[in-house]
Design goal:
Helix content: over 70%
Oligomer: single chain
Radius of gyration: 20 Å
Order of helices and strands: HHHHHHEEEHHHHEHHHH
Strand order of the largest sheet: 1-4
Structural class: mainly alpha
Shape: globular
Number of helices: 14
Number of strands: 4
Largest sheet: 2 strands, antiparallel
Strand content: under 5%
């Protein structure tokens, strides 16, 4: 490439980067505005459920969309963090913020151990290892009645008082806490994606042998993003335990891992805000189509098939392509 063409490339890249940054700023402003205004029009518990599962979907997207690693076992981190938070709050009497941190720490520890095992293989073998490990966690939760409550789960989890000062018993007070956690986590994931770490992740995802030839330790980056993804998934599960005051086997079931895949794919895999939109769509369907009973899963399957056939890049990916912007 000549000096002139290099200058032209740099000149063209700058406006694109500036435009992308501006579109992301607008998207963040819209999300914050919706988070602040929505409780006046929508049931707060429903909104908190959306945010909890949005964190779960965003965590999964961090691993697959930017790391190129397909996990079928993310429910293990979501569910175990939920159990840990519920147990700490109910049996140890810990404050909500400490209970959430305990759940997140357990999810991160599991992610470190499981990730170290799983990244030794690639492709479908990696996915099957994550599924097998998650099933082990499920059967552990089923049998460890003293910790998880078995089939009954941990019920009547106290919401407690934030820092021992601000009671979170009301839905509105808890909403402020969940919204703050959600926005902070979203900003953190955005910074991770657009950091040098995130750039290397994309390079490994697109061409791992070339990234290795440039001197990057691919396995370290894979393990790093695996742990980060498990941590954020655990954050979603921990907050969910406080919102519904319940931790159950549903949180660690393999179908919960499928929910994360569905939300990320419907919203837009590999986009910053796509999984948030996907989580909103799926949770809304589950909530307002509950009268259909088991048919809700059939409807979700139809939506999933339509997304794969008509717009594989997801809803937000389609919007980004049509508007020629990067979301």
């Amino acid at each position: 490439m000549t000096a002139v063409s290099m200058e032209a490339a740099r000149g063209g890249a700058a406006p694109r980067s500036k435009g992308r940054h501006r579109s992301h700023q607008i998207a963040f402003a819209v999300i914050v505005a919706l988070v602040l205004v929505s409780p006046f029009f929508v049931y707060p518990v429903f909104l908190m459920k959306v945010m909890c599962f949005a964190l779960f979907a965003l965590a999964f997207n961090l691993l697959l969309g930017y790391g190129g690693l397909l996990s079928f076992g993310h429910a293990a981190y979501f569910g175990m963090a939920s159990y840990m938070t519920a147990y700490a709050a109910k049996h140890w009497g810990w404050t909500p913020e400490v209970s959430v941190l305990a759940g997140v720490a357990l999810a991160a520890a599991l992610g470190l151990v499981f990730g170290a095992l799983a990244i030794r293989r690639q492709g479908i073998y990696f996915s099957m290892i994550t599924l097998a490990l998650a099933q082990m966690v499920f059967f552990f939760c089923l049998q460890a009645v003293g910790f998880t409550g078995g089939e009954d789960g941990i019920q009547a989890v106290p919401r407690g008082s934030l820092f021992g000062l601000v009671p979170l018993t009301s839905d509105n007070a808890l909403y402020v806490f969940v919204a703050a956690v959600f926005i902070a986590a979203l900003v953190m994931m955005y910074r991770i994606i657009h950091s040098p770490f995130g750039q290397v992740l994309r390079a490994i995802r697109d061409n791992e042998p070339r990234a290795i030839s440039l001197g990057y330790h691919a396995s370290r980056y894979k393990l790093g993003v695996f742990v980060l993804s498990a941590t954020f998934a655990g954050l979603g599960g921990s907050v969910k335990a406080l919102v519904f005051q319940l931790a159950s086997l549903t949180d660690v079931h393999w179908s919960m891992s499928g929910e994360a895949v569905l939300m990320a794919l419907v919203g837009g895999m590999g986009t910053v805000f796509g999984p948030l939109l996907g989580a909103t769509v799926i949770v809304t369907m589950q909530n307002y189509l509950a009268s259909f009973g088991a048919w809700v899963t059939v409807i979700q399957g139809v939506v999933f098939v339509l997304c794969v056939l008509l717009f594989r890049e997801g809803i937000l990916g389609l919007v980004a392509r049509k508007t020629r912007s990067q979301l």
